[in-house]
Amino acid sequence: MPSKDKGHSAITSSDQELVLSSLEPEQLAGLKKHLIPRRHLRGLEKFVVWSLRIYLVFMMAVVLYQVWTSLH
Amino acid sequence: MGVGPLSRVTAQVVTQGDVAITHEDVDRAHDRVRVSAARAQRGVFSGFRLLWLLVGPGILVMLGENDGPSMLSYAATGARFGIGFFIPFVVLTFCMAVVVQEMTMRLGSATHRGHAELIFDRFGPFWGWFSMIDLGIGNFLTLITEFIAIRAGLGFFGVPAWAAVVSALVFLFLAVITHRYWTWERTLLAIAVFNLVFVPVALLTYPNWHSVGRALITWQPLPGGLSKDTLIIVLADIGATVTPWMLFFQQSATVDKGLTRKDIHLGRIDTVVGAALAAIAAVATMLATAPLFAHHMTAENFQAAEFAQALQPLIGRFGAVLFALGIVEAGMVALVTISSSAAYAFGEVARRPHSLNLPMAEGKAFYSVLFLCAAAAGAIVLIPGLPLVYVVLLVNVVAVLAMPPALVFLFMLANDREVMGDLVSPRWANVLATSVVVFLTLAGVLFGISVIAPNIFAFLGGT
To answer: With an 8 Å Cβ cutoff, are B2 and A26 in contact?
Structure first.
């Protein structure tokens, strides 16, 4: 139920009306704790995501090698 | 009330009265009332007022990305390679930034969720944590370079390094002290526009406009051909316009500002205007340092203050001061936006309140992350003997390498009909986004080849 925040000025009923009339339901901070349903990656998506992950790890190793050669 | 596909679930909760209204909601509601009032009126003035109320995240993200390392990359580009290849190249990179950032704005407006939150919810914590690690490392390294820029820029005026770092942290504190997104955004926008200070600096060098026009039309070849050095600059310039923190920041800022599906058209204008302003500042920076290239000055190891000092005989003390101030401003604005991006992402993942509308008591975790990230990065910059310009270029390179995995999640989310409804990306946007991913991946692969087998470019006709 609509409430007031402890330690701050109370949220009045007109505030509540204002919020409920001008914000979309998903915009309410309290509702963001509700998770959006999960979806699982399909075959091609999994392949692309894993490929790019391996690419990133490899390229980071290249960057470290570049730093190492520059320092020596 | 909500019209998005997720509204069914949330509307049900609201009707059941099972929701606590917070100060964050009240502040955002006041902002939305002004938007609704402007939208309800007719006429040109109301149209501009609506645009004025809704611009912000797009301009901030683009000018925020024209940060310390970016401006130094552009300065190094102009000084070492002139403008022939790089002016059209930088314009192209900003076009890529528009394609990518428009998707984040659309996602934020349609779902009212931040980027980190959406990845965690939709794809699970395994991929969510990978994205967060990429973002965390990238943000922290970039924050270090912002302090490098601030330190170097203020160094031109004789400010000691420790004082520069403390000034930057005070600036960060003042930027968020109002605990109001609207005030934060407007203040930062006013300061970010100072990024255009590089335009008068460029004008002071009396650029040859015929050459500038020819560069834009003909797109001359890369000076010296492909080599490890030129590739680092190419990648640094790409990393100066598209980086992972921008995706997270613009989506979170869009949500915090409260944009909705009705605002997407003006959100696009916001993004394009931001990109245009940032491109103008970037090109101006290259034009400003291009005389160093023309005078065959070795600028390989220049730092920000040294660029300003080297330019002083050509553009005078006033121009050099403007250049140094521009570097400081670039670092300061990005310090605020990147710290905010880290704090937003933390709050989204940890399910803690995350908004610049939060009073300090409600947003302790949010504000602590924001300040601690910045303070830790600032402390590192005080380490003596750090190779500053090298670090700056390297951070931009790392940003480019981290982009393709981040973009793939953005791409999947923007095409996810369950969360986007009829706002999924159109085919043309998917073609452009795929091209950006392929382009960035190829640029990274070329860089990898240049490091592992540098002689291959000599074989292909480079240096």
So the answer is: yes
